[in-house]
Amino acid sequence: MNIKKLNLVYFSPTNGTEKILKKISTAFKNIPTEEFNLTKVENISKKKFRNNECVIFGVPVYSGRVPDVVLERLKAFSGENTLAVLVAVYGNRHYDDALLELKNFVVEQGFKPISAGAFVARHSFSTKDFPIAENRPDKNDLETAVNFGMEIFKKIQENNYDEVLVPGNFPLKPKSPRINSTPSTIEEKCTKCGKCKDVCPVDAIEINEIVKTNSDLCIKCMACVKICPVDARLILDEKLLKISKKLYLNLKEERKVEMFI
């Protein structure tokens, strides 16, 4: 099959997933590429992909599952037996059932998954004191992403559209209970620049006299922490710090990229 168009569909608050998908896409030389960034809801509109296109889906992994907010936004996209590549990006613990969940979802939406990969990126709970996969994706990860793309492109050129088999269990593992905590703001340092509000994928941040975060909306992606130019946005909540420390202590060994072609 001659693919007429490549599409990148991703949710990437801290840009790790976006970076990986763009590297994968470099193998599809001379093929028009369009990006659909689901991180901000205002960017989303309904779209149906044709059977001469390929879509690379990139999602973060939260506690071994695809976040509800991501699945909800993915509902805007459908296919007509459109070839699909599945990419799950996790913070060095494990992706558990995320690839299987994503596969089942996109199949219901009219896509045909032919390849999949699990990549590692900096954990959202990583801090200076408790760094977790701090420098991922690294050079080797990105080189692997390029090679992964080349293998996918080769598979398509050979008209091999066999359905990809991915790890996971069904029923899917239960999703972790919501943590009623958010990143904190040091008001004395905060300049009210608004970057944290702008980057929040769920519009959980309100800036007036002080910065307020709606804990019912916050998904703990920590994009606001990463983007703050004056380090006024931090993980200070005891519950979050306890999780961060536990992950840091238990995730010393860096996981490698897994590919299913």
How would you characterize the overall build of this protein?
By secondary structure, the chain is of the alpha/beta class. It folds into 2 domains: 5-171 and 254-260, 3-Layer(aba) Sandwich (Rossmann fold); 184-236, Alpha-Beta Plaits (2-Layer Sandwich). Helices cover 27% and strands 22% of the residues. The chain contains 7 helices and 12 strands. It has helices at 16-25, 68-74, 98-108, 139-157, 195-199, 223-227, 238-250, and strands at 5-10, 33-37, 47-49, 53-60, 77-79, 82-90, 111-120, 184-185, 205-207, 211-213, 233-234, 258-260. The strands form 4 sheets. Strands 2-1-4-6-7-12 form a 6-stranded mixed β-sheet, with helices on both faces. It has a two-stranded parallel ribbon with strand order 3-5. Helix 1 (16-25) crosses helix 4 (139-157). The radius of gyration is 19 Å and the shape is globular. The mean pLDDT is 96.
Q: Tell me the span between the first and last alpha carbons.
A: 17 Å
Query: Considering the protein shown, what is the CATH homologous superfamily of the largest domain?
Result: Flavodoxin domain
CATH architecture of the largest domain: 3-Layer(aba) Sandwich
Radius of gyration: 19 Å
CATH fold annotation of the largest domain: Rossmann fold
**Tally of alpha and pi helices:** 7
Shape: globular
CATH class of the largest domain: Alpha Beta
How many domains is the backbone divided into?
A: 2
What share of residues are in beta strands?
15-25%
Secondary-structure content class? alpha/beta
- Runs in which pLDDT lies below 50 for 5 or more consecutive residues are none
Helix content: 25-40%
Strands ordered across the widest β-sheet = 2-1-4-6-7-12
Order of helices and strands: EHEEEHEEHEHEHEEHEHE
Question: What average pLDDT do the residues reach?
Answer: 96
Instruction: Count all strands and give the number.
Output: 12
